[in-house]
Automatic annotation (TrEMBL), chains A, B:
Function text: May play a role in DNA repair. It seems to be involved in an RecBC-independent recombinational process of DNA repair. It may act with RecF and RecO.
InterPro entries found in the cross-reference section: DNA_Rcmb_RecR, Rcmb_RecR, Rcmb_RecR_Znf, TOPRIM_dom, TOPRIM_RecR
PROSITE patterns according to UniProt: RECR, TOPRIM
Species for this entry: Rubricoccus marinus
CDD domains xref list: TOPRIM_recR (cd01025)
Taxonomy, superkingdom: Bacteria
Protein name (database record): Recombination protein RecR
Amino acid sequence: MTHTSETVEALVEQLSKLPTIGRKTANRLAAYILKMSREEVVEIAKAMVAAKDRVVTCQVCFNVADYSPCPICASHRRDRSVVCVVEDPSDVFALERTGDFRGLYHVLGGVISPLDGVGPNDLRVRELVGRISGKPDLTTASGEVAETAEAYDESGVQPPEAVPVEEVILALNPNVEGDTTAVYIGQLLDAFDVKVTRIARGLPIGGDLEFADEATLSRALEGRSGL
Amino acid sequence: MTHTSETVEALVEQLSKLPTIGRKTANRLAAYILKMSREEVVEIAKAMVAAKDRVVTCQVCFNVADYSPCPICASHRRDRSVVCVVEDPSDVFALERTGDFRGLYHVLGGVISPLDGVGPNDLRVRELVGRISGKPDLTTASGEVAETAEAYDESGVQPPEAVPVEEVILALNPNVEGDTTAVYIGQLLDAFDVKVTRIARGLPIGGDLEFADEATLSRALEGRSGL
């Protein structure tokens, strides 16, 4: 016990549970919270609980959203012939921030990782195949029925016109798990008339060739393209 | 708007208000919060609000605590002849962690910083003088009456025997504001029969002379002591 207040100590303990927040940062945050107005603190606390209470999983793309289907899936302005496969909702945020992608998403909820005991059945892989095949009448990994049509029926949103998927872009991280998952999904989708691509791996913009690691450099060479 | 959920967006916004938490970390925390159980999130949210609701300022040392006087001021085992003056409650935490200091504290609530518009009257300087002079019958910076005896009367805690303060240790940060505050307090306390010291400034333990900045090195030389 280094604090003179058990309440502060409890707060520091709670804050330390969050990722990227060590004991030192937690102390600093606690000191800041004590200086904030009660209203401000209540607002943060409410936002945290609201996220748990209100946020749902889109039953089409499995992204987090306030409604299902999510605004992207329900949009009439997105290109429905392209589906971008990502690991986590945060990857959707990252891609949306670029403003360059106008297609739909599919959130796997992880990547294949035998070391962590994560296999294809723990991910939304079957649901992806369902979307590509145009027969999304499969039970999801969690046992819920994820029928695109049904998701729309329940929401009362007018579903955009169904369009066959022409391209699946695998936007998975360039590491062992991402590679494994990409290869696995690529093989699964071989059976369908759909183009499967993967986002480029190479030197980051602003990066320096001199300081790039060998794996990145090899991949950058391998992936070279015409001017 | 890069999120598909306004609730998540609101949470990220709220979290970004905290120090050391940028938009990226806020996104990461939000993703983690969505994965936590509702109970865990409620626990964190409650701890934050509880800190605002339950934590009070000790009316003797002005540290944060669950009760006034705080456990340190109320303790019969601390050396009441030594008072360590610090800027913030977090400095008390840091010093208590060493386990080396057995005296009492006095939290100024800041340091003199003309650039930020903070003068001696915004700090608990008068209260410090009150404690040293043995006549702590002054109104505090915030206008409340901070009378040590009264603080004890209200709490019902048996006050430890009053002991005259023999030494005031200024544990202020080694920067311009800390130096200014130290000099100011030193001059104020000149009128009393009390030894005023300041914690040593020099090379940090494990630090490297070669990489130390000149100011630190100068101070380390100046503060050299016998073996």
